[in-house]
Amino acid sequence: MSEEYVPRVNMISRMGAGVVGGVAGGLLLGILLTALGFFDDRKYVELYGQLVGDATLSTAWVMLLVVAGAVGAIFGSFVGRFITGQIIPAVGVGLVFGMACWVVLAMLVLPIRGDGGLLSIKDSGGIFALGIYTLFGVATAVVYALAGPRRKYYGRRYTTGLVMAMPRARRRRKGDD
Questions:
Q1: What would you report as the CA-atom Rg of the chain, rounded to the nearest whole angstrom?
Q2: pLDDT digits (tens, 9 = 90+) for 5-56
Q3: Closest residue by Cα to residue 147 from 7, 24, 9
Q4: Mean pLDDT across the chain, nearest whole number?
Q5: I want to staple 136 with a disulfide (CB 3.0 to 4.6 A). Which of 25, 34, 109, 165 is the partner?
Q6: Mean pLDDT within 88-109
Q7: Cα dihedral sign for 111, 116, 117, 122?
Q8: How far apart, in whole angstroms, are the C-alpha atoms of residue 5 and residue 97?
Q9: What's the rounded Cα separation, in Å, for the pair 142 and 93?
């Protein structure tokens, strides 16, 4: 990672870092969905696979990563400028963003293409799916904060964090007595 300054208004760099964060979060999302058995149930495979008309597990994984990358790009474009290079705010923003992703993806977009009910917590995977999507949001935000553009700090940055009020030694000039 370079420490060069990238302007905060550079939408392309924020979007690219958001895609990286989204794909990393999507990998975590897919692994957790598979580990908790959501992909064993054909419902999730069919929901992600029906986005392109093929309901196989490999297509569901690819579509999950594509959707995660697109969601990451949206994250980087609109929300990323508030957390550039800061881990702690990234976790908080990621929690909220992950919950919003669960509402939009699992409760609205995927049921529209499938036969599930809109805004149904039971059909969207329940509380475990909410937790998994929240972890997706946190992973996306943290990877974005690490890989995204940096803020430029003006002035002197102290490494110790301690600033002492000490007078500076001055040279004596001729004529000063």
A1: 23
A2: 545 557 888 898 899 999 999 999 889 888 888 777 676 777 777 777 787 8
A3: 24
A4: 78
A5: 25
A6: 88
A7: negative
A8: 26
A9: 9
Cβ atoms of 79 and 23 closer than 8 Å: no
| Dist CA 93 CA 68 (whole Å) | 16
CB 18 within 8 A of CB 147: no
| Amino acid in position 47 | L
| Full 3-state SS string of the chain | CCCCCCCCCCHHHHHHHHHHHHHHHHHHHHHHHHHCCCCCCHHHHHHHHCCCCCCCHHHHHHHHHHHHHHHHHHHHHHCHHHCCCCHHHHHHHHHHHHHHHHHHHHHHHHHHHCCCCCCCCCCCCHHHHHHHHHHHHHHHHHHHHHHCCCCCCCCCCCCCCCCCCCCCCCCCCCCCC
Q: How far apart are CA 24 and CA 2, in angstroms?
A: 20
